[in-house]
Amino acid sequence: MSAPAGRARRVLAATAVAVAGTLAVGMAVAAPSAAQAGPTLGQLAAAKGRYFGSATDNPTLNNSAYTAVLGSEFGQITVGNTQKWMYVEPSRGRFDYSQADQIVAFAQAHNQTVRGHTLVWHNQLPSWVNDVPAGELLGVMRNHIANVAGHYKGKVVHWDVVNEAFEENGARRQSVFQQKLGDGYIAEAFKAARAADPNAKLYYNDYNVEGINAKSDAMYNMVKSFKQQGIPIDGVGLQAHLVLGQVPSTLQQNIQRFADLGVDVAITELDIRMRTPRDAAKDAQQAADYRAVTNACLAVTRCVGITVWDFSDGHSWIPSVFPGEGAALIYDEDFAKKPSYWAVYEALGGTRTTTTTTTTTSGNNGSGCTATYRVVGQWNGGYQGEVTVRNTGSTATTGWTVKWTLAQGQTVNSLWNGTVTTNGQEVTVRNANYNGAVAPNGTTTFGFTGSSAGANPIPALTCATS
Ligand code: XIL
Fold this sequence. Notes:
alpha/beta, TIM Barrel, Immunoglobulin-like, 2 domains, 8-stranded parallel barrel, 7-stranded antiparallel β-sheet, 13 helices, binds (3S,4R)-3-hydroxy-2-oxopiperidin-4-yl beta-D-xylopyranoside
């Protein structure tokens, strides 16, 4: 595997910087990496024994900016549309895997697991299924499952076997399957899926079942009875198409009660929509919401992973289905990481750092320094940062200066182990009177807290010694 592009550092030649009354000429300045050089969400999740994935759809596979992120950031892919009945069995007995196969091949080429979605669902169901006589529908459903799960045998780690079979009040949805086959159709679907691919984990998947309510109670009772009867079910999928500021308070408790029944739980279609346009306050709330969902999953061992329902706001189903709402994902339309991305990143144990090097190649004392910025923590409206100054020169420093720009309206309020001055957006931190002397290759660290109303990207730093 090649190193991430972000690791490459661009060297800007011959930048002259005035430092503490002396002029250091001929400094080489390395720009901060544009991309995060650290681990991906997929890698962070894997380190916690989970996956972090994204749904995707065929049209976007032609967009190279999109696939660059899809192929690198995620450990898992869900086929967003083209494994649904209308695509794979558009007419009775005629199966077409051409589109879904492209997505599965993409995932395999990028070492990503695949969640299969979905075998039996009332939506995106070709109309011919509605016309199947009641006496033939069980055979048609079994044949569909045998073909589709059989085609992807060994290539799909989870199957959403049945999707959205309950109403909000916990009653069975009156789909064609329910009407013609009765309550037993779900168990029949799971048995057929097990027979077709014995190694795939078999999931029941639904929405508005994230918290404890009448619908999730119905799902709970079904799973419990399947377990008692030996119906092969391995997991439940909580879709988690959520609304800004409305992560259910019982999410973790609900995940736990399913785990206690002996099934896995997956967050299968996460997005958190807001009224558009975005603003900093909504972004901050969304980040808190994504953090809460991630933490709830991490708190329960049997919560095996999280999938976002596509990753970029430009490729989300939300605006077309919920007019006036959107911006529900973790990357913006231009594939820039949003605060919600960083909230997941940090919740999964990632630490945000960047290093900017300003090396004195000729100066008054042969010293130089690097400054490494780390977001220690971030919360709704504020953050804590930390900067480590390293002496890269051959003689001890007598003082150092680190500067950056607060580009998104952030502030630095309280700072320790340094002396801060701000001038508009410019922050300048000089050593305190006790930590200006840093030995060659030694370090000293200062910290601070500040406010951030929304985006709080890692700034580029300059560092100079005296
Ligand atoms: C959505 C897709 O994202 C859209 O492109 C499509 O038009 C409709 O279906 N619950 C599910 C998903 O289980 O299959 C749905 O996906 C979103 C809601």
